[in-house]
Design brief:
Residues 1-38 are annotated as: Disordered. The chain is mainly α and 81 residues long. Helices cover 35% and strands 0% of the residues. The protein has a domain at 37-80. The protein has helices at 32-35, 40-53, 57-66.
Amino acid sequence: MNATSGPRRRPNGPHPERASADEPAVPTQRTAADVYGVSEEQVHRARIAVARNSLDSDDCRELLDMLGLIGEGGDPPPVRR
C-alpha cells in the first residue's frame, strides 16, 4: 500500500456538475409561525390536485371537505383559519 491509498474525501461545496445558476437557493428554515401558514396558491393547487384525482363530483366534494379545503357559506376553508 502506498501513502495515498485510503478513503477518498469529498471536496467541500456544491458538486461542480450539479451546480446551476437556474436552481433556486435552499429555502430558509421555517419558524413556528410559518408552520401553519398556508398560502392561497397552496390551497388552489391542492384543490386542483384533488379534483384531478377524484372519481366524480361527490368524491371531489367529500375529499375537499375531509382535507379542510372548502368552507361553508363564503367562510375561508378550515385550512386557512
